[in-house]
Amino acid sequence: MAMRNSASRLSFLAGRAVGATLRPMHCAALHNTASDTQPKKESDYLLGTLPETMKAAVLWEPRKAMTIEELKLPRPQVGEVLIRTKACGVCHSDLHVMNNDIPFPIPCVLGHEVSGEVVEHGKHTDSATIERLPVGSRVVGAFIMPCGGCFFCVKGQEDLCESFLKYNRGLGGLYDGTTRLYMSSSGDPVYMYSMGGLAEYCVVPANGLAVIPESLPYSESAIIGCAVFTAYGAMKNAADMRAGETVAVIGTGGVGSSCIQVSRAFGGRIVIGVDISDGKLEMAKQMGATHTINASKEDVPERIRVDEELT
Ligand SMILES: [Zn+2]
Ligand SMILES: [Zn+2]
């Protein structure tokens, strides 16, 4: 059987954020419903009382340790949701900012693999959004938080959202061009990489949130909106993987181990994890790899040929 997906191609895919967005139902936010005309109770917007400040990890300077600071509690605006953070992953994209490999305004709060609980909707948010994300619901955020209304978002290509790239990646804020984060003492602005999830609370545009079921723990779910959907986009859109195929995944870290799980879910016949760490390869087997290869000890193309012939 010929291999569709060469090892090197998958390596390329796994290293890039291909299709790294959730596909939330942003259309709901664009259509008013009849209930929008009815007055809403405060409890529809707000879950209990909230503190005035919160703690967050702030990056002040590249290649220096972040410090825990007191910030004002961020305020969500229309179409935005305040989340009480339950878990936040640390992604290599965060490290790129920390190392100044990716220019970004500082001081800033990193963290874009976030899960948490909805505690507040911005005033004047439409009923459809509030009904989709009720206060108290368990949610996961997306690395790219689509605006839902730009040229690319309306075509279903939210991963290219112009507003996100301009206002968040360019200016460190949300779609009105300002941040939601301010120092408690001085009132100075602190910029947000995506939602700035390395904090007790974070503001996320509703289009960047999806509800998760009770069966999914917060900690394991946090990476769904980045590592897992990068893998999903790579396997579905870029590799166009089909059931019965052989897949080799080069590098079995966060994205790679997600590629392995997605490949098995797509019906991969042989799913080979390749890495130079035996520990990561052991984990790759637990994630569903049918075979593993340590590239520092074995000839990878030769082993893949042998595995295919033997299976
Ligand atoms: Zn990430
Ligand atoms: Zn957009």
UniProtKB/TrEMBL annotation:
<dbReference type="GO" id="GO:0016491">
    <property type="term" value="F:oxidoreductase activity"/>
</dbReference>
<dbReference type="InterPro" id="IPR011032">
    <property type="entry name" value="GroES-like_sf"/>
</dbReference>
<dbReference type="Pfam" id="PF08240">
    <property type="entry name" value="ADH_N"/>
</dbReference>
<dbReference type="InterPro" id="IPR013154">
    <property type="entry name" value="ADH-like_N"/>
</dbReference>
<dbReference type="InterPro" id="IPR013149">
    <property type="entry name" value="ADH-like_C"/>
</dbReference>
<feature type="domain" description="Alcohol dehydrogenase-like N-terminal">
    <location>
        <begin position="79"/>
        <end position="213"/>
    </location>
</feature>
<keyword id="KW-0479">Metal-binding</keyword>
<dbReference type="InterPro" id="IPR036291">
    <property type="entry name" value="NAD(P)-bd_dom_sf"/>
</dbReference>
<dbReference type="GO" id="GO:0046872">
    <property type="term" value="F:metal ion binding"/>
</dbReference>
<feature type="domain" description="Alcohol dehydrogenase-like C-terminal">
    <location>
        <begin position="254"/>
        <end position="305"/>
    </location>
</feature>
<keyword id="KW-0560">Oxidoreductase</keyword>
<dbReference type="Pfam" id="PF00107">
    <property type="entry name" value="ADH_zinc_N"/>
</dbReference>
<keyword id="KW-0862">Zinc</keyword>
<comment type="similarity">
    <text>Belongs to the zinc-containing alcohol dehydrogenase family.</text>
</comment>
<protein>
    <recommendedName>
        <fullName>Enoyl reductase (ER) domain-containing protein</fullName>
    </recommendedName>
</protein>
